[in-house]
């Protein structure tokens, strides 16, 4: 990996940490809080993934989660440590890696970035894939049925759609402006 690619991966891991400074919004009926960090996943996929490739988008999430596992309090609300991977949020956290990869894969394949294409990519990776990992793990850890966990997750959908719109707008605006876009395709 080139040094500048490592810097970009680290930068998006830092963006995830910065988004973790925003306090979580706890819900009385679910132990999984609402956070802004899924916005960081979408930005990593749609900006970093579109420019350098999907593996770099997912590597930024791997780096971030390794820092969290090492005890850095980077998750929203100052949470960190290996214990967070044994909570109802664990599947969503692991889903960030796959979500960033899928968004990055779809964005990297775009010939030109339109808002509609970016919305579709962010919806696929930022909502569908993350929920695909998160809902079953939440169901298992909370010892509820899969349909009950899916119903609980509907609460997060309006906020996630707003994050998809914001990430897509930012990604389209940066698509041709970002410095590493100039002729670098891996």
Structure description:
66% of the residues lie in helices and 4% in strands. It has 186 residues and is mostly helical. The protein has one domain (3-180): Arp2/3 complex 21 kDa subunit ARPC3 (Orthogonal Bundle), CATH 1.10.1760.20. The chain has a two-stranded antiparallel ribbon. A hairpin with a 2-residue loop joins β1 (25-27) and β2 (30-34). α1 (3-19) crosses α3 and α5 (115-142) runs antiparallel to α7 (157-174). The protein is globular and about 45 Å long. Belongs to the BioY family. The chain crosses the membrane at residues 7-25, 31-49, 56-76, 82-107, 119-141, 161-178. It is a multi-pass membrane protein. InterPro entries: BioY (IPR003784). One of its GO terms (molecular function) is biotin transmembrane transporter activity.
Chain-wise SSE layout:
Blueprint: H1 3-19, E1 25-27, E2 30-34, H2 37-52, H3 54-69, H4 90-108, H5 115-142, H6 146-153, H7 157-174
Antiparallel strand pairs: 1-2
Helix pairs in contact: 1-2, 1-3, 2-3, 2-4, 2-5, 2-7, 3-4, 4-5, 5-6, 5-7
Give the strand tally.
Answer: 2
Which CATH top level class fits? Mainly Alpha
Shape type: globular
Question: What oligomerization state is this entry in?
Answer: single chain
Structural class: mainly alpha
> For the terminal residues, how far apart are their CA atoms?
11 Å
Mean pLDDT: 91
Pfam families: BioY (PF02632)
Subcellular location: Cell membrane
InterPro entries: BioY
Main location: membrane
Short description:
GO terms for molecular function: biotin transmembrane transporter activity. The protein is mainly α. The protein is built from seven helices and two strands, in the order H-E-E-H-H-H-H-H-H.
């Amino acid at each position: 990996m080139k040094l500048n690619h490592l810097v970009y991966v680290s930068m998006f891991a830092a963006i995830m940490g910065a988004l973790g400074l925003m306090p979580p919004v706890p819900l009385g009926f679910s132990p999984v809080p609402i956070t802004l960090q899924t916005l960081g996943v979408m930005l990593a996929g749609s900006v970093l993934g579109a420019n350098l490739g999907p593996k770099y988008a997912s590597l930024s999430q791997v780096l971030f989660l390794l820092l969290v596992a090492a005890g850095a309090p980077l998750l929203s609300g100052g949470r960190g440590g290996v214990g967070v991977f044994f909570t109802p949020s664990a599947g969503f956290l692991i889903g960030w890696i796959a979500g960033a990869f899928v968004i990055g894969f779809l964005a990297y394949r775009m010939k030109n970035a339109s808002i509609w294409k970016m919305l579709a990519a962010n919806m696929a990776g930022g909502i569908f894939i993350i929920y695909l990992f998160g809902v079953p793990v939440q169901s298992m850890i909370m010892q509820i049925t899969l349909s009950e966990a899916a119903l609980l997750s509907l609460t997060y959908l309006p906020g996630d759609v707003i994050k998809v719109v914001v990430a897509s707008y930012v990604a389209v605006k940066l698509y041709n402006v970002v410095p590493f876009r100039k002729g670098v395709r891996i």
